[in-house]
Design a protein that fits this description.
about 375 residues, alpha+beta, Jelly Rolls, eight-stranded mixed sheet, four-stranded antiparallel sheet, binds 2-oxoglutaric acid, binds fe (ii) ion, iron, Iron_ascorbate_oxido_reductase, metal-binding, metal ion binding
Length: about 375
C-alpha cells in the first residue's frame, strides 16, 4: 500500500503545522516522471497524515488570485439591497447571495449562524436534466446568479473558476500518481474537468464579536512547531436557545464563529485567502487547532468526504473552522471545491482494499451526498 505505515499516520495526524508542497513538476509537462512521482508521494503523505497542505509552484498568476479577492471585496461593499438582487433560495437552486447569518453550522441539538456573507456558485446544469431511475430531479441544478452588478467581478470570477478547475484536476493527477493509480484515474466520468460538479463560495467575514477573537489566540500557528493549547471540540456552553419557524433549535452559544467546525464534502478544496489575516484552522488528532496562516503565493488545500470513500479511509477529511482573528479588519476568501461528477458513484477502490482492510464505506452517488449536505446549510 502506498505511503506511510499506520503508526506513522497516527503520529502524523497530531500535526502542528501544514506541509507546503511545490507542485511545479505536475504543472510543467517537461519535468521528469520521477519528479512527478515525488510530488505524488508528498501529496499522498499529506492527505494521509494531515488532510491539509499548501501548494506552491501552481502556475497561477499573482494578478489572478489577488485581483479576484480585491474585486470580491468591492462587491461586498455594495448596499445590501443590491447584493440581495441575487439572493439565494430554493427557487434559485441554492445559488446566489446569502446575507450575514443565513449560513449555519449544525451541531447535535441545534445550529449556529456563521458570521459571514457569501455568494454560492456551482457548475451550471440544466434544471430539466432528467434524473436517473428512482431519483428526483436535482434541486441544485440550475444557472448561477452571477454578481453582474460589478461586470469586472463577474468576468474575472468566470476566468478564475476555470483556472481553479484546471488546478484541481492537476493536483488530483498528482494524488492518483501517489496512490499508484493510473495518472488519469480521476478524469472522464469520475471527476474530469468537464464533469466535475465544482462548487465555489466567495466569502466575506466581518470582524467577530470579542469572545471569539479571544478564543482564536489559542491555536498553533503554521510553521511554529510548538504545540498549541487544546481547544475543546465540544461546542462552548449554551447561553440559551430559541426555536425558529421550522422547529429547529438555534443555540445561542457564547462564542460566535466566522464559519463553524465542519469537514468538506467532495474531493479537494482549494482556498484563496488574503495575506495578513489568520483565520482558517485545522483540528489535529489531539483536538488542537492549527492555523492555516496565509503564505503569500500559496493556496491552502484540504480533502473531502469523497476522497475518504474512494481511498477506503486511507485519507480522512480534517475538521476545520474559520475565526477571523482581526478585530478591526474583515477577511475575504474564495474556497473552490473540486468535486466528482454529479452522477459518479463513489465507492472504495479495490486497489485500496485488502483482506485486512475490507471496504469500509457503502457506494454513494455524489449528487445524493451533496444534496444531503447543501439542503441543510441554510436558515433562510
Ligand atoms: O474561508 C476559508 O478559509 C474556508 C472556508 C471553508 O472551510 C468552507 O467554506 O468550507
Ligand atoms: Fe471547509
Amino acid at each position: 500500500m502506498p505511503g506511510p505505515k499506520p503508526d506513522e499516520i497516527e503520529a502524523g495526524r497530531a500535526f502542528t503545522s501544514l506541509p507546503v508542497i511545490n507542485i511545479s513538476p505536475l504543472v510543467d509537462k517537461a519535468q521528469s516522471a520521477l519528479a512527478k512521482a515525488q510530488v505524488g508521494a508528498e501529496l499522498v503523505k499529506a492527505c494521509r497524515n494531515v488532510g491539509f497542505f499548501y501548494v506552491t509552484g501552481h502556475g497561477v498568476e499573482e494578478e489572478t488570485y489577488r485581483g479576484i479577492l480585491q474585486l470580491a471585496r468591492t462587491w461586498f461593499q455594495l448596499p445590501e439591497e443590491v447584493k440581495k438582487q441575487i439572493d439565494i433560495g430554493p427557487h434559485t437552486h441554492f445559488r446566489g447571495y446569502q446575507a450575514l447569518g443565513a449560513n449555519v453550522t449544525r451541531y447535535d441539538g441545534g445550529f449556529q449562524r456563521d458570521w459571514h456573507e457569501a455568494i454560492d456558485l456551482y457548475k451550471e446544469a440544466d434544471p430539466d436534466t432528467p434524473a436517473p431511475a428512482g431519483k428526483q430531479k436535482s434541486p441544485i441544478h440550475g444557472p448561477n446568479q452571477w454578481p453582474s452588478q460589478l461586470p469586472a467581478f463577474e468576468s474575472g470570477l468566470r476566468r478564475y473558476l476555470d483556472t481553479m478547475l484546471q488546478l484541481g484536476s492537476t493536483i488530483l493527477r498528482g494524488i492518483a500518481i501517489g496512490l499508484e493509480l493510473p495518472e488519469d484515474f480521476f478524469e472522464g466520468n469520475r471527476a474530469g474537468v468537464d464533469m466535475a460538479y465544482w462548487v465555489a463560495r466567495v466569502i466575506h467575514y466581518p470582524p467577530l464579536p470579542k469572545q471569539a477573537v479571544d478564543l482564536s489566540s489559542q491555536p498553533t500557528s503554521n510553521g511554529n512547531a510548538a504545540a498549541g493549547e487544546a481547544v475543546s471540540s465540544r461546542p462552548p456552553e449554551d447561553g440559551g436557545a430559541c426555536r425558529d419557524e421550522s422547529g429547529l433549535t438555534e443555540i445561542a452559544r457564547s462564542v460566535q464563529l466566522s464559519c463553524g467546525e465542519h469537514s468538506d464534502y467532495g474531493l479537494l478544496t482549494i482556498v484563496n485567502q488574503e495575506d495578513g489575516i489568520s483565520a482558517l484552522q485545522a483540528k489535529n488528532s489531539k483536538g488542537q487547532w492549527v492555523s492555516a496562516d496565509p503564505i503569500p503565493g500559496a493556496f491552502v488545500c484540504n480533502i473531502g468526504d469523497m476522497l475518504k470513500v474512494w481511498s477506503n479511509g486511507l485519507f480522512q477529511p480534517t475538521v476545520h473552522r474559520v475565526i477571523n482573528s482581526d478585530p478591526a479588519k474583515s477577511r475575504v476568501s474564495i474556497p473552490f471545491f473540486y468535486e466528482p461528477a454529479y452522477e459518479a458513484v463513489v465507492e472504495p477502490l479495490p486497489q485500496l482494499c485488502s483482506a485486512d482492510r475490507p471496504p469500509r464505506y457503502a457506494a454513494i452517488r455524489y449528487g445524493d451526498h451533496l444534496e444531503g449536505k447543501v439542503l441543510n446549510n441554510f436558515e433562510l
